Amino acid sequence: MPAPRPRIAVSSCLLGNPVRYDGTDRFNESICNHLTRRFEIVALCPEVEAGLGTPRPPVRLTGSPRHPLALGVEDANLDVTAALQRFSDGWLVQAKSLSGLILKSRSPSCGLRDTPVFDLHGAIQSHGAGLFTRIVIRCYPQLPVDDEIGIANAKQRNVFIDRVEQYALQRHCT
Ligand code: SF4
What does the pLDDT look like over 8-28, one tens digit per residue? Predict the structure, then answer.
């Protein structure tokens, strides 16, 4: 029997699902063209699955660069940090069955390396990962992870594919 295709999770908006705060998507052709036949794809939207709904008020990372909060852009009294952390902690169990993760860049939840963290006056003070990503990569530091900017680059995409296949093989053997 052929081995099952490795399973990877992808930010749902990149797959064309209208789950962004304003009800739009960010369909990504590179991911859909190059990866959907090779891997089993699981759609994931931390903000929707945390119960925040669509449409919803936009949030951004604010405060300490190491431990930022996810606060409303228009209303800083809106704090969805705990909801996102609860969902992310619960999702870690599902991550055990995954061999990779592709995330939406710059998102306060899904960003990998370029999500802005604002100070209390609204100025960008640093960049880093979104809240969901911070929790997942802390728990699974070896899991192959990239974002749609990385996947758009053919060389980086091939590196990601190799890493996913290796990771899946190791999971299968342990
Ligand atoms: S970036 Fe992440 S949280 Fe935001 S809409 Fe896309 S999947 Fe959902």
Answer: 999 999 999 999 999 999 999
